[in-house]
Amino acid sequence: MEEVKKYAFYFLTGIILFLILYLSIKIADNILNANRIMYEKASQYVNMELNSDKTHTKIKYPKFNIKTLDEAVDDLVEKYKTKNNVNIEYTVYVSKNIVNMFFKVIDNNIISYTDLNYSINSKEFNTKEIFDFNILGEEVLNKIKTKYSTEIYNKVLENQFKDTYIKVQDEGIYVYYSQKIFNNLPYEVYVFFKNENVEKVAEVPYDKVIAFTFDDGPGNYTIELAQTLLANNSKATFFELGNRMKYNQETVKTLYGYGMEIGSHTYAHKNLNKLNDNEIDEEINSVNILYNEITGDNIKLLRPPYGNADSKVKERVNMPIIMWNVDTEDWLSRNSEQISNHILEHAEDGDIILMHDIYGTTLEAVKMALPILRARGFKITTVSELAEIKGVTLEKGVSYRHFK
Question: Are 244 and 218 a contacting pair, CB within 8 Å?
Fold first, then answer.
């Protein structure tokens, strides 16, 4: 009898354990299924639009038919729907783990942002699952420092990510800053973190092309200028002096490695028109030899000092001669805002813009102007690429001021 009871106990215990295991699997499966349904529903959101002719307000927003998400969106819409002159656009990104909603609000021509980041797993709004500023904050600051002016960097540093918003796309994550911390700048401030699974970020559309050129380097600001260009998907031509290249060979190698175009500005910045034939040859050929020793490549373009190249010089020069048609006069003003404004006011399709990579104010000006130019549909590139895009074959001894 005792033996029977013993086996009955084991049998019942086994049944109970089996039921517990079965129920655990069922519960876990239900949770996963609920998350899957949540994911599928979120992926099938409906585009909604609220218009008011009376207040000139237009609000676009998503409808998920998921109570938690829709309540958060409704709160946002409620906040703006009775205001005047408001326009709201949005993007939604859904993965198996998160729903990211990014809203761009233009309120009486002033831009601000709002984001809502919902975790499908935890059923909570939580930005950390998408982008943890405790881990990546330093990298954000470094990207801001490279891309924008010192003034903007200092404002971001002071703000400490209080007014920071996240937009997720297939190609990566965009980190935006509220314009109010920059006294409502006329352009958006953001940095980008590429998704490692995406091989190539889509190029910003453009319908105008210009060449940035920098003379008299290499200098203390040359590398940061190149990094600023790269951060804005741009390139430039650096017309460097041989006597500076000689003592800044690592800078030349870095520029070359970044894919920037390096041209000759002669060896010692002498007025070629006042030199004899042998002196002209020495000023040009010595740079070519030095550059080849540093990079293994050959100089292909010349910018004569002071823009002086008479017929005698042109006959002796064995490469195209590149002038300019937009002079920022950065050497004269040494004022970053003035230089930036000059670029923005005068830049047109096919222009060659003259600057110098030996001034900190020029660096700051480029940081200010580049994002705006990109937003206006400009591609900023090298002289050679500009010529190629415009269908111009550069010829030896021929002078070029622009490619209109």
Answer: yes
With vertex at residue 255, the alpha carbon angle to CA 267 and CA 296, rounded to the nearest 5 degrees, is 70
Nearest to 246 by CA among 279, 289, 213: 289
pTM score, whole prediction: 0.57
> What is the Cα–Cα distance from 132 to 236, expressed in whole angstroms?
34
Residue type at position 55 = T
Q: Determine the Cα–Cα distance for residues 47 and 62; give it in Å rounded to an integer.
A: 5
Question: Which is catalytic among the residues 115, 216, 330, 356?
Answer: 356
CA distance 345 to 143: 27
Q: What is the 3-state secondary structure (H, E, C) of 37-59?
A: HHHHHHHCCEEEEEEECCCCEEE
What DSSP letter does each residue of 112-147 carry, written as one string?
A: EEEEEEEETTTTEE-GGGT--HHHHHHHHHHHHHHH
Q: Tens digit of pLDDT for each residue in 316-330?
A: 999 999 999 999 999
Query: Using one digit for the tens of pLDDT, what is the confidence trace for 261-300?
Result: 999 999 999 999 999 999 999 999 999 999 999 988 899 9
Active site annotation includes 215: yes
As beta bridge partners, residue 47 has 62
Q: Which helix (H) or strand (E) holds 252?
A: helix 249-257
Q: Transcribe 60-73 into DSSP letters.
A: EEEE-S-HHHHHHH
Alpha helices in 296-375 (DSSP H): 311-316, 330-333, 336-346, 360-375
Out of 215, 216, 351, 357, which one is annotated catalytic? Answer: 215
Compute the radius of gyration of the chain from its Cα atoms.
30
Copy the structure tokens of residue 65: 């038919």
Q: How many helices (H) and strands (E) does the chain have?
A: 13, 17
Q: Which tokens is 168 given?
A: 């997720």
Length of the chain: 404
